[in-house]
Amino acid sequence: MQDGTSGEPWNSQVQKEQTYEYDTWTELTFDFSESSARTDFTKVVVQFNGENNYEAVTAYIDDFSYGAPVNPADDAEGSGNITWVGDACGYEVAANPSATGINTSANSIKYTDTGGQYANIQFELSDGATFDLSTKNKFKLKVFVPTPAVAHTQSKTLWLKLQDGTSGEPWNSQVQKEQTYEYDTWTELTFDFSESSARTDFTKVVVQFNGENNYEAVTAYIDDFSYTN
Q: Which of 79, 145, 219, 224 has the largest CB neighbor count within 10 A?
């Protein structure tokens, strides 16, 4: 890790090393937690077999990522990395109900609340990871909600909540953002949590249509969920 704005960035660099074996793919993790107070790094350097030598090296790298977790995303086409869990709510990959406008993909995620008081779908980061809202604090997704057969009294609102899943009562310390939608059209919604950029304890995302503490049934579709800045 180097400060690329410096004339001699190597003078203030920090370096980590990992060994590998020939002829096999190996996943390597480089932990710079000891330098967590540094704020001047702008450059990453990847270097096989050290420096100040003249040996030739052919190597391959793949799936480079910064931090944990790998950015959670789901496009409902099989390339996502989110494991959704329904809380009194059904979840399944289903055909796109309206492949028009901003979403012409084949599939989407069908959300089926049959009247659960606090129904939602959610996912949690693995391996003790938390969201770093100081660098990335926005979530995006597309939503499509068909006009319900029985009119809703609740507002047409999607809630997105961040929670500490390690807490026994994660809702007590959650933060929540809301966006409105219209029936029968795909809409892209952005949820901005920049006001919570100092929080480092969030491990869980909760997606909830039409609020909570009600018994109205909701069928909805989401797609192209992403975590972004």
A: 145
d(CA 135, CA 38): 14
pLDDT of 68-101, one tens digit each?
545 899 999 998 899 999 999 999 999 999 999 9
Give the C-alpha separation, 135 to 79, whole Å: 24
Structural domains of the chain, ranges and CATH numbers in brackets: 1-64 (no CATH), 73-228 (2.60.120.260)
Q: What is the rounded CA–CA span in Å between residue 92 and residue 72?
A: 18
Tell me, letter by letter, the H, E, C secondary structure of 12-58: HCCCCCCCCCCCCCCCCCCCCHHHCCCCCCCECCCCCCCCCCCCCCC
pLDDT in tens, 122-155: 999 987 889 999 889 999 999 999 999 999 999 9
